[in-house]
């Protein structure tokens, strides 16, 4: 499938806000191994730093002198998926997922834990009623593990296990009341 409106080349960058830029640089360079590739001083003493995630895609952080304090459970997830509540407010960023090779999954989990990063359980995402299987099987479409950065940003390492297909789009969108509207059902060819 291609975008017929705009030629998008993937993600340019995601910009987050940190409490301590020095701590953020340490985590993303020394723990996750990303290279710091651009630093910007912004007005009022702020900073804007960019890390290379690979494939010409970047993770950026702002540091603002008078930024509001973090609000877990509102602006960020309060718990790890599979462990606690992950719901967040409208217009928040729930988590940031990094694509990893499937064959490196277990190695990367062990490496994070060796670096002192607490990871959640391995989640084998499938189309079961619960959406996650205890064991890996042919119906799993992505394996993932979640962890927090020093500011409480929820991060994910995810490994696709198969190509996505047309039948992977099997649910109609709901409105703000949680109801499938007749407009959505009609547009999707469902009654």
TrEMBL record:
Short name of any one Pfam family annotated for the protein: Glyoxalase
What PANTHER family does its record include?
A: GLYOXALASE FAMILY PROTEIN, METALLOTHIOL TRANSFERASE FOSB
Organism field: Pseudonocardia hispaniensis
Gene3D superfamilies in the record, alphabetically?
2,3-Dihydroxybiphenyl 1,2-Dioxygenase, domain 1
Signal sequence annotation: none
Q: Which SUPFAM superfamilies match?
A: Glyoxalase/Bleomycin resistance protein/Dihydroxybiphenyl dioxygenase
Protein known as: VOC family protein
VOC domain: which residues?
Answer: 10-160
Q: Where are the transmembrane segments?
A: none
């Amino acid at each position: 499938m291609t975008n017929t409106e705009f030629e998008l080349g993937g993600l340019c960058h995601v910009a987050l806000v940190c409490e301590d830029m020095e701590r953020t640089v340490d985590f993303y360079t020394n723990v996750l191994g990303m290279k710091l590739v651009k630093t910007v001083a912004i007005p009022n003493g702020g900073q804007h730093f960019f890390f290379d995630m690979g494939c010409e895609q970047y993770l950026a952080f702002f540091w603002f002198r008078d930024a509001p304090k973090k609000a877990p459970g509102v602006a960020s997830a309060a718990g790890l998926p599979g462990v606690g509540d992950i719901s967040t407010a409208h217009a928040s960023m729930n988590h940031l997922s990094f694509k990893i090779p499937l064959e490196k999954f277990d190695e990367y989990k062990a490496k994070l834990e060796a670096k002192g990063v607490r990871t959640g359980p391995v989640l084998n995402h499938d189309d079961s009623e619960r959406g996650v299987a205890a064991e890996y099987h042919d119906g799993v479409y992505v394996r993932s593990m979640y962890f927090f950065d020093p500011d409480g940003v929820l991060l994910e390492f995810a490994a696709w296990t198969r190509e996505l297909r047309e039948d992977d789009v099997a649910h109609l969108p709901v409105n703000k009341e949680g109801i499938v509207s007749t407009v959505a059902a009609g547009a999707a060819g469902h009654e």
